[in-house]
Amino acid sequence: MATKKTTKKTTKKTTKKKPGYIEKFLKKADKAIEEGIKRADEALEDAVEFGEMASSQAKKTSDELRKRAIKEGELLKAQGMKKFNEGVSVARQATSKADQDLDALERLGKLRKEGIITEKEFQEKKKKLLSRI
User: Which pTM was predicted?
Assistant: First the structure.
């Protein structure tokens, strides 16, 4: 029985807390909390920096796209004006040719009246000229 009592006493001694144990535990907990806060602050700073970089890159990309759109708009406008001017030129040429053909037809009519060309020759030339108009 004496042995059993000694064992019990030893067990009781190891389970007893030293004075200041709670204070040490709380200090360790505070230190861990401070380190956690510090890490969280660092992560937040990194996130803010990354956000600023992303925002800057987005602005740069937006500016580049805007410039490209302006250039493409100007190019399309220039191409449209070129096509328009070509159309106007073709219309002028067609009008000019039609005017020339009508003048030629008028001259042929005078030649027929004066008897320089026959009615048959006039009708043939008239048919050709009118088909071009």
Answer: 0.43
- Sign of the Cα torsion 37, 40, 46, 47 reads negative
Structure tokens at 36: 């956690």
- What span, in angstroms and rounded, lies between the C-alpha atoms of 42 and 8? 51
CA distances from 35 to 26, 27, 38, 47, 58 (A): 14, 12, 5, 18, 34
- Please give the pLDDT value at position 17: 59
> Which tokens belong to 128?
């050709």
Contacts 24+ apart (CB under 8 A), 42-46: none
Handedness of CA 21, 24, 28, 33 (dihedral sign): positive
List, for residues 3-16, the tens digit of each pLDDT value: 444 444 444 455 55
- Are 109 and 130 spatial neighbours (Cβ–Cβ below 8 Å)? no
